[in-house]
Amino acid sequence: MGALIQSMLSGTFVSVEIFFLTLIFSIPLAVFFCAARMSKFFPLQKFAQFFLLLIRGTPLMLQLICVYFIPGLLWGFSFDRFVAAIIAMSVNYAAYFAEIYRGGLEGVPQGQREAAKVLGYTKAQTFCHVIIPQVIKRIMPAMGNEVITLVKDTALVTVIGVVELLHVAKSASNRVFSTVPLFVAGAFYLIMNGVVSFVFACIEKKLSYYK
Q: Chain-wide mean pLDDT for the chain?
């Protein structure tokens, strides 16, 4: 049992690494996608709209397979399994985050911008001091839901052979002919999502003064 827990802790470390790297890359990438989607340049706006539909409309598992195998088929090289997992997951979650950002921005009443203009705020000051605080408050619940989903979606990288928590649990389950390792893995995911939920609850509480 001790060896099982040790191997699952090792798999958990890989899952946590994938989780944080995906967040680090997807959150700023989503800003670019959102800006393109809201651009007044029609071709860019339509291209971004199609790209976001493509990413959000196809399974993440398929995207993982494409990122890992297609470069080898087309150009004769392939990404490392772990790198391919980070690329696919970052682009996938950036697409979802971009739509959350867009919804937050479009949800701020136009009157807020007009009031800031009357008060003599520049566009940059209005965006930083009036718009962004309200957007952050609005998008937190949706962001929390997506981040919780991300914790669970780290299990999908096993499709390209990345040895993470669920991969370790499935291997152990097959080896000892028991479902106990899978339930232990479920407990690990529950703990991780509990931490994520707690963090977002604290953030929402800190931002409650924007009501």
A: 89
pLDDT of residue 44: 94
171-183 residue pLDDT tens:
888 877 778 888 8
Burial track 50-63 (b if 16+ CB lie within 10 A, e otherwise): ebbeebeeeebeeb
Q: According to the model, what pLDDT value does residue 1 have?
A: 59
**Cβ–Cβ < 8 Å for 34, 101:** yes
Give the predicted TM-score (pTM) of the model: 0.90
